[in-house]
Amino acid sequence: MSIQARADMELWDRPFQSLLLGVLAINIAAHITNIPIWTLIASIAALIWKLGHLYRGIKLPPRWTLFLAGAAASVGIVIEYDTLFGYEAATPLLVFLASLKTLETNKDRDAMFIIVTSYFLLMAHLLHSQSLGSTMFMAFDVAAITILMFQLHRTDRRLTRVNLRPITRILLLTVPVWLFLFMVFPRFSLRLMQSQSTAPSVGFSEGLNPTSISSLIESDEIAFRVRFLSSAKRSIEAMYWRGAVLYRGKDLRWQPEEESLLKAKGHALESRPAEAPKTNETTDYEVTLEPSAGRTLFTLPRLISLEGPVSTMSFKPYMTEANLGRLTTERRDRLLYRAQSILEEFGPLENLSLAERSRSLLLDADIAPEIQDLAHELGATVQGAPQAVAKIEEWFMLKGFRYSLKLGANSPENMQDFLFKKKVGFCEHFAASSATLLRLMGYPARVAVGFLGGKYNPLSSTFIVRSKDAHAWVEVWYPSRQNSKQGRWITFDPTALIVPLRRQMGGDFFDLSEEQQMQSVSPQDAYAHLSRSTLSSLFDQSVMLWDYAQMSWSNFLLKYDSSGQKEFLDRLLGVQASPGALISLVLLFFVISIRLIVIWRRRQSHLSPIDLQFDKLLREFDRTQIRTKASDGPLTMRSRTNDPDIQFALDRWIDFKYAASTNVSERETHLALRRGVRAASRLPSASDSARSLPSL
């Protein structure tokens, strides 16, 4: 029965509708993190209502209420996103409308609408993520949706092996087509569908306040991955990944500069003056950045050069005045870039302009007199920035300051409270207070925010930097002895002296108990405690294996842009591949494919699945001489074999084909013939039997 003939029928069976709801639910679940919670709840409620109608007979809502709900959802999306355009706004609206559609699905065309909508929801998911997990989900989802669409066009909609075999074969045959199109179709970056809203910064905040860093420590979210390319690698305690430099501070809160000021004071990569040549003190590394840091490009101090593929350079990266890598435009994609840094103590001297010096000494007018007196006391006997840094560290140790993430009631309310009463804090408290004391002592200082360390993955030889590696420290200006206007910005981490284990272990430090954190143990002993159980060790290895696969896939996608594709095809074809040549190659592939499909279809028999199985059985009979001539009938062939499976297959086929009334089903006959074919394939051929006869 065709779709047109069933167009006015109520939807057939509950199992098929349940599968339809299941596929739609899978595609809705893929967008859980990208749609408003009210949209998700309303969509789930619609699906549950439909299930109640199918299995409990609950009455469906009238159509006019569905129209009102759709209109209300559109208004809600406009309020939420300020627009209906762009895939961020369109995705939740499509999710909700598809769920509403299930409440009036009672015809084939309604089911087809939901199936097609599921394809669009899958495409929207891929716009949000192209990770390895998303790719695996895409393959499964495409197969599920396609099978559902194939079943919609069948009279028998049961998910049997016989029914699924044709569509499975089709899906497998499309895999080479996917691979070919991926490799040769011209690569381009399309951002027309992106909205103009600011991308959320989930794992990194450029400002500093008493909770900005500590709030990230509980998360294992990956910020970026780093692979060192040169032999001059950094140890974990030397991996200070700079993300932002802050000059404006008020008490414990420090604010980043305006984006327009950063861009105005910065300079494009190609116009940056040449730095020191590559030496043993320079470090080359490759960073795969997750889409959670806005415009920031994390690098080690002191950055010398930065480059990336076309997909990265399209965001127009530039260098800020504070020697930070940054993007001109917002991003929502994973990025790959290479950078080169030199140790802070090496390389040519930097110039400190009067404007930057003033900003590095800027003080809040409301600093407590007690803090000013402390700075005067500490700075009275020091000469130079190195001595000032040492004096602050000595004072922290003498006064018994402690480093703790779980502050609770001991959380300092302000800098005065931290320095003279509570004396316990996190890296934000130590960095903000130290920078303020240095400025009061007359030494230029600024607060740096980023990450410290990383977890090493031996499978991929990369360091995984997570949210729990977030950190704040101080950068102090060390002037040259010959010229006070020249010098270097040197890292000063006041927490490193209080808890050296934090610097040596990175974010893994926070997996220790607070008592273990304050103990004077080696990193090796601390790691041995964390990996004490076999189960935890196996889990860590599994995580590392998955991360290795994920990173390899991500880097492959990022490197295979237009230039990467051209390089690959140039090597493959031996000639330069222009865009016109690629398009011609794709068209030629389609022409050849269509021609092969036409030839294949012409050669295919129009036999039913049972007749095709019987034809296979006859070919086996010809091989074994069970059938000696074309006129041999099934009863004759049955008499020439003693194999019970072959005899049973012939009996079933005779009953199915010639019996006037029989209870033998098509499925039973098909299975019996398949067993008969397998049994006949195990019999020796006539030629083998002749060779085995003894000679007279």
Keywords:
single chain; 696 residues; 3 domains; six-stranded antiparallel β-sheet; five-stranded antiparallel β-sheet; 26 helices; 50% helix; 13% strand; elongated; disordered N terminus; disordered C terminus
Describe the structure.
The chain is of the alpha+beta class and 696 residues long. It folds into 3 domains: 3-153, no CATH class; 218-511 and 522-529, no CATH class; 609-688, no CATH class. The chain has 26 helices and 19 strands. The strands form 5 sheets. The chain has a 6-stranded antiparallel β-sheet with strand order 8-11-6-1-17-16. A 5-stranded antiparallel β-sheet has the order 2-15-18-19-12. It has a 4-stranded antiparallel β-sheet with strand order 5-9-10-7, with helices on one face. A hairpin with a 4-residue loop joins strand 16 (455-457) and strand 17 (462-466). It is elongated, with a radius of gyration of 35 Å.
